[in-house]
Each structure stands twice: as C-alpha cells, then as structure tokens.
Amino acid sequence: MNSAPTTKEQTVTVPLRGGAELACGLCADRLLDELRALPGVQTASVDAASNQLRVSVDPQRLSASDVATQAQAVGARLAASFGHRTYRVGGMDCTNCAQSIEKSVGALPDVLSATVNFPAAKMRVEYRAGTGDVEQIVPRVEALGFTLEDVRAQAGPAPARPSFVRRLASPAARVAASGALLLAGLILEHATRAPEPWPDVLLAGSVLLGGYRFALAGLRALRMRTVGTNLLMALAAAGAIVLGHWEEAAAVVFLYALGETLEAAAMERTRRSLGALIDAAPSEAVVRRGASEVTVPASSLDVGDLVVVKPGAKIPADGVVVEGVSDVSEAAITGEALPHAKQAGDALYSGSVNGNGVLAVRVTARAADSTLARILHLVEEAQAQKAPTQALVERWGRVYTPIVLASAVGLAALGPLLAPGPDWVYRALTLLVVACPCALVIATPVAFVSGIARAARDGVLVKGGAFLEALAGARQIALDKTGTLTVGRPTVTDIRAVWGTEDRLLSLAASVEAASEHPIGAAVVAAAAERGLVLPKAVNAQAVPGRGVCADVNGTPVLVGSVELLRERGVTVTPEVVRQADALQEQGKTTLLVARGGIVLGVLAVGDTTRPEAADAVAALGRLGLRPTILTGDNALVAKAAGL
Question: Would you identify the family this protein belongs to, as annotated (predicted)?
C-alpha cells in the first residue's frame, strides 16, 4: 500500500489481492459504491490493468490503513458472496446462438448474469456463491446443442488448428456446398429444362446442407422457450417447401447461412488475434525447489514460487527478480521495441522474453491474475460490447419474431372465419416467407464485419462493432508511439566521434557486437553494413547483461556499452562525453559508449525512428476534424517529429 499526502487530501493505493474483487465489472462497482459511502472518502476508482484501487480521502477523518482494511474486507465479502466462472463455448455459428445461451443460463434462479462473448467464443457467468445452480449450466447449454469447457479464466496455449477433415465439415464448406447445389438446381430448372425431380433434389440438398444446423438450433431454443430468428428462418424455409417453392426455400437458407458464415469468419480472425496474445504466455515453467529444479505447467504456479528463467525463455508469470541480471524484451506487453535491463528488485511481466542472462524470479501473481491475463480479459470484454445499432436490431428482432409467428397462426386460424376457403393456410405460410428478416439479420452484422475487416487490412484492429460505430462521433484521437508513429525496431540514429572518424568508431562497435543476439547490437551491425564497412575480427567477446559487450580487437580490449561499464573497467569518461550521452538519452534514445585501449572513442545512439509517413498521416487526421494526441514516455521532441 502506498500513499501520497497533500494538504487537504490523501491518495491511497491498495493492491487488490488475488483479483477476486475485480472478477467482473459489477463486483468492481459494488466495491466502489461501498467505499464511497465511507465518511472521509472523496473519490474511489479501480485500475484494472494494474489491479489496484485508488482512493482519495480526508486524512483527518479516515486514515490510509483504515482504507486498506475496509477495501480488503469488502473485497473478501464480495468474493464470498458472488461466484464467477468463464466457459469456452463450442458450436456457435451466429449471434442468435449466443442470445439463446444467455437467455437459457440467465433463467436459472441464482444466476445473476450470463454474458456470451461471441467473438471470443466464451461465456462469463456471475452467480450467488454456495448455490447448486451453477452445476446446471453445462447440461442446460449442452441441451441446446453446444459444448462448454470451464477455463477458469486462465491464460494458456491457444487451441490447435482444426484438421483438414474437420475443415471440410466446417460451416464455410457446408455453405459453399449449399450454394453450389442451389446454382446447379437453378441451371437444371431454367437453363437445361431437366425433368423432375432432379432440380428439386439438388435444391433439397442445398436446403439440407445450409439449413439443418440453424433449424436444429431453433428447435432446441424453442424447447427452452426461446424464440429467435433461427426458428423463424427454419419455418420460413419449411413454408416455402410446403408451398412447393424449392427455389425460394434454398435461396432463403443459403443467404441466411452465408451471412452467418461471413460473420463467423470475421470473428475467427479476431479469435486468432486473441490467440496470438494468449500464446505470449509460456505453457511451462522451471521452479526451483530446494536444490533441484522442476518443470511444471505455468498455470499451476502460485504466489511465492521461485522460477528460474533461462536465456531466451519467456517469463512464465508476473514476478520480481531476486537473482541475476539480464535484458528483457517487454514488446508483447508494452510494445516497446528496445529491451530493458532487469536486476534484483525489478518487476517482470508474464509473456516477456528474457535475454542472455539467467534470472531467478519470485512469482507475485497467479496465471489468472497476471498482467497478460488482465489485458486479455479487457480485450474480450471490449469485443463483447455490441454497437448501439446492433443491439437495437437484436432487441427489435426478439419482438419481431414472435409477432410474425403469432400473425401467421392467427391468419391461418381466423381467416376461415372471415371468408371460408382453403387458401388461408397458404397465405399464412406465404406470410412466413415474405416476413423472413433476411435483410435485417444479415445487413447489420455484415456491415460491421466488413468495416472491421477493411480496417484490419490497413493494420487497424477494431475491437468490436460498438467502437467502430463510436468512431463516427470521435473528435480526438490518441496515438501510441512505438510501432504506430515509429518504425518499431531499433536503428542507429547518431554517431558522435570523440577520437578518430565516425566509420572507425562504428566499425569497432560493430565488430564487438557481431556475435551479440541483442537487438541493439544487431542495429549497430546493420548500420555498419549499410555503410559498407569492413569489420576487424573480434575475439573473446563477452556480454555483460545490462551493461554492454567487451572483446579484443587486434589484441586491444574494446568496450561497447554504458558509462557504468566503462568506469567499472577503469576507463575515464570525461564530463563532455557524459553530457553528449545524456543529451541523446533525453531524446528517448539508448546510448553506447565505445572505448579502445582505455580511451573513449565516441558515442552511438540507438532509437526507434519516426515513420516517414507519420507527419502526413497526422496532418490527414487533422483535416478530418480529429485532434491527435501522442501517448509516449519520451519527451516532446518525438511528438514534434511526428507532426504533433
């Protein structure tokens, strides 16, 4: 717990132990509501990314320790009162499937909320703890024809890609076959005038391949007293068949199945992007237990375990370095192109990649509570948010379907009372066909899918339809620096020779760095190659984690690294060289001092250069009426280079 006192208020930071208090947004709101009701509390907010609670209090009325005690007590009570489970859902083809599952599970008495994230194929359930209703969730969903797997919100390896045989039986393959049979049936019917019943046989096959899944889904939903567009589409197709209109039945089924397949394909691309994030976490970890080291699943790590991370391995869990020094790349988490030197006492993120050193790391969070898992959870929650237009269409569709069914039944039952005759059933079935909401159910999701896919082709990842629709009203845009306004990889930006020429300085540094696997070393070698420099041979190269590299060139020791490395090796670094290095570091660059035979030859600077098109892109955003802002830990020089 940390606190920063001021004259009138005190801001208290309380870590949320184990993440239980943040299991869902509702629990976070309950926690904040109870804390805001305490006398002396002025503001309270939750930072889900850092898993911390920030409370501003009047220190004269409420002490920092009392805030921490109250927050942890409320969090413990919430964890004991409410349970949460996350399931991976299989077998969903469309958003109607998700709605049927939500309604069925939400009908259980002790289930407080059930939210299906169709893009991520997951369902999150909140329920009253200590009740048996949660055990009915799996059989209830399986009765609808779907599968559930309790993942307990743990980050782990992404599911394996489907086999070739399974891809042949995929919804896309079935829709393609349905379309081919529809086309063949129409050709036989109208172009070749083939005799009956061959055209109808092909059209029947088209209906069967394209429609049996949503027909079964509609019937299962009906068993659970849920009426959706799946059922209406099935009845519309059945009505067309009863009327003898096989072409209309096959066309209705194919168009509906095609729309659902296009949406599912776009969602699969989104799931793969999530899978790339999940794969950032390793599946195994090496734990030190006494004098031995044991390999265990990363998901089984607990707080306090001592993990050994070898060179090149991924960090298996959030933790703190207790032994060793190494450069660690946090690009998967922060997007930063350059690795950071880590030593005892420094924090590490799960999914980061270790450099050349060996680290002993004390685990500070379980896999389900790691920074990577929280980022993944936030992304999935963002994807689950429906756009206002899409939500409106779904609400209207839930009312529209029962109205259409009731109207058809009423027409068939009451029509003969007004004018006796056999045509009323025919007219009722016709109503089902013409009232089939193909345009409604296809147009809205496909419009959002098309927009999201088009943005993805240009390298813009939109997390969901809600955010795509919100862009229309945007007036300000925040741009990440690394990899967005910059190239995203280190390059040599400055060469400051103190003794000798720039080429001599660069060639010596590159010869020493040639055997290094560090990204900064690779940038130095690449810069020398661009100038066509001949590198002298370096021997006895040795990397000093977090400091630099040393080697012998033509029998003379050469050092490339930080000021601290040179001073540790007895090299005198003048104040002028230090000033040059500091000036470059203030620009957000990493500096390398080069010394030969105990004499400093100069300074190299390595940084992430601004994209050539960045300034034009920022200017174009301004012409669209958007006010751009840069998000960076560097100074204003980087923003100015990008045109901000």
Answer: Belongs to the cation transport ATPase (P-type) (TC 3.A.3) family. Type IB subfamily.
